[in-house]
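Record 1 of the preview.
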Amino acid sequence: MELPRKVAVGGGVVMELPDICKDLKLLPRAVIVTGPNTEKVVGRTIFELLEESGFQPETLITSASKMDEVERAKDLAREIGAGFLIGAGGGRSIDIAKLASVRGNIPFLSVPTAASHDGICSAQASLTVNGETTSVPAQAPLAIVADTKIISQAPARLLAAGCGDIISNYTAILDWKLAHRLRNEEYSEYASALSGMTAQMIVELAPEIRPGLEESAKIVLKALISSSVAMSIAGSSRPASGSEHKFAHAVNLIAPARALHGELCGLGTIIMMYLHGGDWKMIRTALSQVGAPTVAAQLGLDAETVIEALISAHKIRPDRYTILDTGLNRKAASRAAEATGII
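->
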């Protein structure tokens, strides 16, 4: 089980980063992986904080979620003899640092600038491989330093997407239970309960979650971290990734870069809850309350894209059994999308 040794969530906690690095007894040389925009938001601050505290940081600015960037980060870390990496920014920077740390056999720290998905703290990374978004096993961060003052200033859409990613735990758990019953897949009651509790918390607090509020950022961050812990306990992404994630990836294949991961997972959760015979209206209401899309048109997706994604989603990661196991035919896909108001 891989869990962070230190988790700091709150306003101004980025200032504690040097002390956290010292407490973890990390070697002085470090690589900060960040993006062109997040370098201005937090990367530069981290560099100065570490340098003033006796560390010797180097910054690597990356702009693509590709294995080439992972190799660049790994090579720089090896070249300077880095003792650790820091992923500072959104999902891309953190995922690149995460994979580079595995390949370089050194730890990494996660410093997110948005609460848009559970990749900020999970042991999975998303990369573009041969034009397709692929989940790659990695390792959990040694520490998470989530400054709610910074994160609360991120675009509202990102916070809503983070809520969508957490709420999708509902159907991920239903798929996992189904696989356990029908395929005797290994199942963890504890991981499932933790994941479900996390999703329920976001649904219940949805009316209170608002962009620009530090307290809202803190709620979503804690939920993302809990969801990640559930995955660590399970030893896989099962507690937080099922048929709704397959749908999200299928949409991305048909209409790349139209929507955020959590937004698509939210839409997928509405439909998959309908297929499971559950309370899909509850899911739709919660997503609407946090400002996440509940209709395909809100993301610029047409009906045909949604239907095609539903029909083909079972081909995504076929080893993972879900409610979509044998696939939906066109009539069933259309009925599900129309009945839930997605199209």
